[in-house]
Amino acid sequence: MNDSQYQLEALSTARLAAVRSRIAAAERAYGRPAGTVELLAVSKTQPVEAIAAALKAGQRDFGESYLQEAQLKLTALAAENLTWHFTGALQSNKTLWIAQHFSWVHGVDRLKIAERLSAQRPAELPALNVCLQVKLGDEPRKAGIEPALVADLAHAVAALPRLCLRGLMTLPPESDDVATQRAYFRALREALQSLREQGLALDTLSMGMSRDLEAAIAEGATLVRVGTALFGARPRKT
Ligand SMILES: *Cc1c(COP(=O)(O)O)cnc(C)c1O
Predict the structure, then answer these.
(1) Do 234 and 41 contact (CB within 8 A), yes or no?
(2) Is CB count within 10 Å lower at the N or C end of the chain?
């Protein structure tokens, strides 16, 4: 092993430990049982070596957002048996490869995409885990379904044979104010609660990132999606 590989692994181990201790501290602070918040390492734009280093440090769930890049990385790491989550924007022409290679999709916001993913999910794989992306702020260009329309979409997606609807995901407007962060995350928790009361068996609140994972855990996140705090600043996408 050369020096730079060694340094990358040491850095990766330290960052992973730091994020895991932030999660554990938030679980304690907000009365969440230990180990109830999963960590998804969002490795988009990071090199395969960075993923390999995090894997050595014990991380097994990784998120990718750009299909071409994901194809290279998933292929390079195929022997490792990792759990891959697609966290990017979904377009119709991307669904086939995603349905064939990912275990989770976090950003479903329309029925047409869900129907394609279900139809294209290979029979020999378990159902594809899906979260619906909800748009909580007033951001016209951001992906996500309006809260008022979530219930109809959730019931339709839950009926698709090759998908397993797990819960809701959000990427709220950026804010450094904890009360504002928590208000968005609370709205997602309440939306999930309302779907459960309508009979849907959902267990996942995918919310919180490097900046705001504590606020998300305070409001009930079951999975935080962390990039920068684990891998450093993202290289510019080329
Ligand atoms: C990039 C990304 C993240 C990670 O964000 P950080 O601020 O780097 O932790 C989480 N979720 C989604 C959907 C992303 O695209």
Answers:
(1) no
(2) C
DSSP result, 31-97: TPPTT-SEEEEE-TTS-HHHHHHHHHTT--EEEE--HHHHHHHHHHTGGG--EEEE-S---GGGHHH
Integer Cα distance of 234 and 199 in angstroms = 40
Q: Is the CB of 210 under 6 A from ligand 1?
A: yes
CA of 199 to the centre of ligand 1 (A): 30
Q: Are 14 and 229 in contact (CB under 8 A)?
A: no
Pocket lining: 224 vs ligand 1, CB cutoff 6 Å: no
Residues 179, 224 contacting (CB under 8 angstroms): no
Ligand 1 center from residue 86 Cα (angstroms): 11
Ligand 1 midpoint to CA 10 (Å): 23
* Phi-psi region at 144: left, alpha or beta (left = phi > 0; alpha = psi -120 to 50): left
- Taking alpha carbons only, the member of 87, 231, 113, 235 closest to residue 171 is 87
From the CA of 209, how far away is ligand 1's center (Å)? 6
Question: How many Å apart are CA 37 and CA 48, to the nearest integer?
Answer: 25
Percent of the chain past pLDDT 90, that is, above it, reads 92
Given a cut of 60, whether residue 144 has pLDDT beyond it is yes
**Which ligand 1 atom is nearest residue 211's CA?**
7
